[in-house]
Please model this.
Amino acid sequence: MCGPAGCGKSTFAANHFLPTQIVSSDQCRALVSDDPANQGVSGHAFDLMYFIIEKRLMLGRLTVSDATHLKREDRKPAVKIARYFGFNAAAIVFNIPLELCLARNRARERVVPEDALHAQYDLFVNTLRTIKREGFDYVYVLDEIAQSEASVKTARYVNRRMAGSTR
Model:
């Protein structure tokens, strides 16, 4: 998933996927530091997040990465891990107006500073221009209406690496 704070990524994930299928950078920050907002541990949190994603894909499990993913270098590991384990990589991009993200952010329990959200949105605008050339098998760009009307259907996929495994 990709989008700035307040765009609805976590809400969308919670509405369309099982809690066990969602690997959240905020949750990983909380696991390593007891504080989901602690940006100082982001490196450790993302190490943990990608470790969990690898383990889930190794076992053939659908996995959703819930983080802003606003820079190409932030998205690249997820694509690489999916390829390594023989899965498609899909990006769900939340193209929500800045004003709505700001309003949603103000209503959240854990508010992102507005200047940080403005910076995230600037990165997001660039993402919209580049993400379709970054190696994802599927890129879904959802505006506010599509976000509320979307349904998620997943196809049964057999990981060819796991199919012959005796583990």
